[in-house]
Design goal:
Length: 280
Amino acid sequence: MIEITRQNFNVEVVAASQRIPVLVDFWAPWCAPCRALTPVLERIEHDLAGQIALVKVNSDHNPELAAALGVRGIPHVVLFKDGRPVDNFAGALPEAQIRAFLARYVDKPGERQLGAAREAMQEKRYTVAAEALSEVLAINPANREARAEYAMALIRMGRLEQARTAFEPLTAAARSDLRLAATARLLDATQAAVSAAGEEPLRSAVAEAPQDNDRRLALAKWLMARSRWAEAMDELLVIAGRDRKFGDDIARRNILAIFEICPHAALVSAYRRKLSASLY
């Protein structure tokens, strides 16, 4: 455990807390509660395996640091995060209370990777997102949210068989979860788009037989696969308004899936109104 002084405080506490939370344990050799608390803190640091750092400040030797952080008695522990003190506790608390104290500030396993994956997805860096999400699933294979997002990243990369394999454990849950169902529908649409002739032949086919729902659905799926949400929903609205029974209401179901996937809130809101008007 690192001993902190004025000379290394900025490096070992302030700068270090930009990476992970740092617990600063104010103590003194003569303090019996301090001697009882230190092994508890060390055990917690070991159990959290790199998610926190523990450092010590001898308050007798560093009274200016203690005064600056409002330490009036010892033991006293100050938590630094993102370069500043964010919380503290005084006294030799029971281990369970200390762990509860830290739980608010320590990332859950996989949380950092999940955040990085979501950022990468927004930036359309799908390979990076898939790698981060695979790490999350290695930590917790039962993380449904991460699994669905992993399947989505694979879909965007065109690795459809892998996406289907990744999504398979979620198939049952998708029957009652709109977000999961949306991922499954996008996977189906992207698979269908792979074998489609292309946009112009699909549009020509619709123009030749405007009443043919199968042709219009094929075009809508092609557009969904390319995230052309408004155009896809325009085609699906035609089908939904014409025949709710077609394909077990597939047009409306695909529109609802787009509502879950589309990142443009204003577009989703506008098409919710259009869908309502076309059906009722």
